[in-house]
Amino acid sequence: MATLLRSKLSNVATSVSNKSQAKMSGVFARMGFQAATDEEAVGFAHCDDLDMEHRQGLQMDILKSDGGEEGAEPPLEGDIHYQRDGTGPLPPSASKEAGVCSELSGQGKPKITAWEAGWNVTNAIQGMFVLGLPYAILHGGYLGLFLIIFAAVVCCYTGKILIACLYEENEDGEIVRVRDSYVDIANACCAPRFPTLGGRIVNVAQIIELVMTCILYVVVSGNLMYNSFPNLPVSQKSWSIIATAVLLPCAFLKNLKAVSKFSLLCTLAHFVINILVIAYCLSRARDWAWDKVKFYIDVKKFPISIGIIVFSYTSQIFLPSLEGNMQNPKEFHCMMNWTHIAACILKGLFALVAYLTWADETKEVITDNLPSTIRAVVNIFLVAKALLSYPLPFFAAVEVLERSLFQDGNRAFFPNCYGGDGRLKSWGLTLRCALVVFTLLMAIYVPHFALLMGLTGSLTGAGLCFLLPSLFHLKLLWRKLLWHHVFFDVAIFVIGGICSVSGFIHSLEGLIEAFRTNAED
């Protein structure tokens, strides 16, 4: 009897604890500070191969699941996740993919508010790559500041027109949502002659951006550690190898549950670091070098700065899913306005204040300019954030590659890399490890944060944020557009194309030169 009583008391205590945790998570979710687990963000990308944030700090809000049968315990916040082996909890759907997509589509689930959606967009465009913006001011002066404002306005506008491409007018004259993702929009533009071409182009751009983001995390980890401990007999390449050794277990990931627990903490820590940098710069306001900020550009290096600035604003890739999960989609435009205005102000102030403090000595990663007394502490936090952020773009890139090359039914190029029991085959694991090693090799041979960031922004950032949205808008809705919308779309396409080509060429030249230099050494 005593044993039975103790067992019942233990069960009651466990139940109360679980309910308390679920309630606390719900409170934070309603406040807009509860970010979804990273595997849910990858779930969005899994539904349409696109909707995910490889930017630094992106976290989609949790959609709480409904309670089960009467008396059953509701699942805890963050417990719902996608597992390759099929062992994870799935909704009552016929297939894994249908289950994941139906869960994330918001049917029967609470949807996010405009404030929560704004928090997600802010995470996407206020990531740790903001640390490279002062370097853009170094080569662009006041024109660099203007470009930060211009990029915010254009990215806000293209985000809105991209969402407009999801809707069409039905026979009754009502505007209805007929598409769900960036891929759907791209395929609709290429139909009927090439119904899947657009989606494949967008997927290739996404994979490039995700892999380049992984490389940037390895580069910035090696750079920060090397500059934090310059007296140690360890080179930047060696620090990159050490960082990659820590990241190698990412090849074994089935989901991101373990990493997701640290996501919100890392994002908040990054905001604190930005505030610390600004506070230090303000403490040296008397020494600011206003005379160094001029109306001139470095013709050779400024195009690289364009890519850096554009890359820091990219969020279009996950906007369709975000808008589809809002309680009131009509608030999407207002949300885009205030998030991009806030980002523009914060980025402009951060870049200008940091550049005024260090002027011509501004480095690619601005924290490297901090005094040695606080540099090590700040950089270690940034390295921890970079290492914990790496699994998300890596896992999303693996998902897209596996679905496109190994699991696309009869259209797959290679045999399925998963066995009948859902386990990853040995050669599939080898390919994952090879992808991790590839990011290391790129980081070793091209350890230039600004060049890589500029190349990525010029190639995929400008394409996904400037060129494709304006092109799709003209193609799908040109009969209903007013003349000024047509003018804006054409202007953005032309200007974006020029900036993209110019930035790509100069970044590529810099990377080739850096690659040759490192090869000779």
UniProtKB/TrEMBL annotation:
Q: What does this protein do?
A: Antiporter that exchanges vesicular protons for cytosolic 4-aminobutanoate or to a lesser extend glycine, thus allowing their secretion from nerve terminals. The transport is equally dependent on the chemical and electrical components of the proton gradient. May also transport beta-alanine. Acidification of GABAergic synaptic vesicles is a prerequisite for 4-aminobutanoate uptake.
Could you list this entry's UniProt keywords, alphabetically sorted.
Cell projection, Cytoplasmic vesicle, Membrane, Neurotransmitter transport, Synapse, Transmembrane, Transmembrane helix, Transport
Q: Where are the transmembrane segments?
A: 143-167, 207-226, 262-282, 302-322, 334-356, 376-401, 429-446, 452-474, 486-505
* Record-level Gene Ontology MF annotations: gamma-aminobutyric acid:proton antiporter activity; glycine transmembrane transporter activity; L-amino acid transmembrane transporter activity
The species is: Cochlearius cochlearius
Region (Disordered) location: 65-96
Q: Which InterPro entries match?
A: AA_transpt_TM
State the name under which the record lists this protein. Vesicular inhibitory amino acid transporter
What is the topology of this protein in the membrane according to its UniProt annotation? Multi-pass membrane protein
Q: Gene name on record? A: Slc32a1_0
Q: State the source organism's domain of life.
A: Eukaryota
Locations listed in the record: Cytoplasmic vesicle membrane; Presynapse
